[in-house]
Design brief:
The chain is an all-alpha fold. Helices cover about 70% and strands about 0% of the residues. Helix 3 packs antiparallel against helix 4 and helix 5 packs antiparallel against helix 6 (about 115-155).
Length: about 180
């Protein structure tokens, strides 16, 4: 984007703008597909039951489909956040001064009397640390969602002869 628009005569695009817009377009398209697939992964009976109760489309989406789809999508969304974090290093190519650029700059400075290897090790540790933090957040959210699901299932009323009817999920199991 930075070099392509510049070659077409569009001037004044900063490296930061090019990196941000490029990452938004790429990661936005991936996340759009994740959301679409996550919503389609929810059984069709969920939305049909909600429509049968008289809910409108926005209420069906916000109250029924999205809460269930987020549980399915959460690992992929967190993984995509890690990819977005790693993709910021692509700004190095267009001289945007991000972490990889600073590592290269500090490693090549003669005044510091250091080679690029120690700077790369420190920079790599920073990247790995950020990815581990995101992975920890993902594990925390996943365990929290799993725990809240167990609590809601314990409070589900048992109806004799109704099989495994789950009132909290609008009848995903048993006699629907």
């Amino acid at each position: 984007m930075f070099y392509g628009l510049g070659s077409m005569g569009v001037q004044g695009i900063s490296p930061f703008t090019a990196v941000v817009v490029g990452l938004i377009l790429y990661n936005g398209s991936v996340l759009a597909e994740v959301f679409r697939a996550g919503i389609l992964a929810v059984p069709k009976g969920q939305s049909e039951a909600a429509y049968a109760l008289g809910l409108r489309k926005t209420r069906v989406m916000t109250m029924i489909l999205l809460p269930q789809a987020v549980r399915t999508m959460l690992p992929v969304i967190i993984a995509q956040l890690v990819v977005a974090l790693k993709d910021t290093a692509l700004g190095f190519i267009i001289t945007y001064q991000e972490l990889l650029y600073q590592i290269n700059y500090l490693g090549s400075q003669i005044s510091y009397q250091t080679s690029i290897i120690p700077a790369a090790i420190v920079g790599g540790a920073i990247y790995v640390g950020c990815c581990l933090i995101l992975a920890g957040i993902a594990k925390y959210l996943e365990s929290r969602m799993r725990r809240s699901k167990k609590v809601s299932n314990k409070n589900t009323p048992v109806v004799p002869g109704a099989g495994n009817l789950d009132m909290g999920n609008l009848g995903t199991g048993g006699n629907t």
